[in-house]
Specification:
Blueprint: E1 8-12, H1 17-28, E2 32-37, H2 40-50, E3 56-60, H3 66-79, E4 85-88, H4 103-128, E5 134-139, H5 152-174, E6 179-186, H6 208-221, E7 225-228, H7 230-243, H8 246-255
Parallel strand pairs: 1-2, 1-4, 2-3, 4-5, 5-6, 6-7
Helix pairs in contact: 1-6, 3-4, 4-5
Length: about 270
């Protein structure tokens, strides 16, 4: 198992939720941590609290903006050094049926959830591939494996994160770069992002550290995927999609409550 002591980690969406949690856990592992978020007030407050755990620094950045990300890379390198662990965690959601979603909201979700990962990887991975060891974590969702109504654009972006991560991992092996890639596919996590979500039959809303502890372990063991809960997300969902007809899956999703789960969901941020 890889020791993370002395590594420089960068975590996006670090002001709250899973980003804050994984930042704390990485600090406890002995990493220096660059904590990145657009919410400067919350980010600054949390960095002050986490400084008791180790060396961390706040970077206010809209990671959906390509030029801002490229500037971020230069600033982090100058002030903290070369990033060896990149955790792409920033994410947003806007609930509603597709035909009534505002165009700006669609752009916002795609830019933050998917395109920001492209820009972060483009900015930081050229330095990472020169190292003896480095690791990228891309936070997707169980909604990147099984789509639900009323969060169509969110699901589309998370399917994109899954596909990108799968391809990126193989490229690292093909070109013999010592960079591991982990995609994270959790069920709904109690971070406030899905406030109002109605639990689906035979599932439960996860606590933040149900996921983040497994993320840190996956970095140390170079695991390709973190699925929480593992059996339902990693095995049951792909298997049922493979063996059951589409219309049967639709009926099961409806009966399980997936069609109504997000009717009263609200995102943490608005656009």
């Amino acid at each position: 198992m890889k020791s993370l002591k002395g590594e420089l980690a960068l975590v996006t969406g670090a002001a709250m939720g899973m980003g804050r949690s994984v930042s704390r856990l990485l600090l406890e592992e002995g990493c220096d941590v660059a904590m990145v978020d657009i919410n400067g007030k919350e980010l600054t407050k949390n960095v002050k609290q986490l400084k008791t755990k180790g060396n961390c620094k706040a970077y206010i950045c809209d990671v959906s903006k390509r030029d801002a990300v490229y500037r971020l890379q230069k600033k982090v390198k100058q002030e903290m050094g070369d990033v060896t662990i990149l955790v792409n965690n920033a994410g947003v959601v806007r609930v509603g049926d597709f035909l009534h979603l505002d165009d700006k909201a669609i752009d916002w979700i795609v830019d933050v959830n998917l395109k920001s990962i492209f820009w972060m990887c483009k900015a930081f991975m050229p330095g990472m591939i020169t190292k003896k060891w480095a690791h990228v974590v891309n936070v997707a969702s169980a909604g990147g494996l099984l789509a639900l109504p009323d969060i169509s654009i969110y699901c589309a972006t998370k399917f994109g994160v899954v596909g990108f991560s799968d391809a990126l991992r193989q490229e690292m092996k093909k070109y013999k770069y010592n960079v591991g890639v982990t995609m994270v596919c959790p069920y709904t996590v109690a971070t406030g992002m899905f406030e109002g979500f109605k639990e689906v039959a035979m599932t439960k809303i996860l606590k933040t550290e149900d996921v983040t502890v497994k993320v840190v372990k996956a970095i140390k063991k170079n695991r390709a995927m973190v699925a929480v809960p593992n059996f339902q997300v990693n095995f049951l969902t792909p298997l049922t999609k493979l063996i059951l007809p589409v219309h049967t899956m639709d009926i099961i999703n409806k009966l399980a409550g997936m069609w109504t789960a997000n009717e009263h969901t609200t995102g943490r941020r608005s656009k």
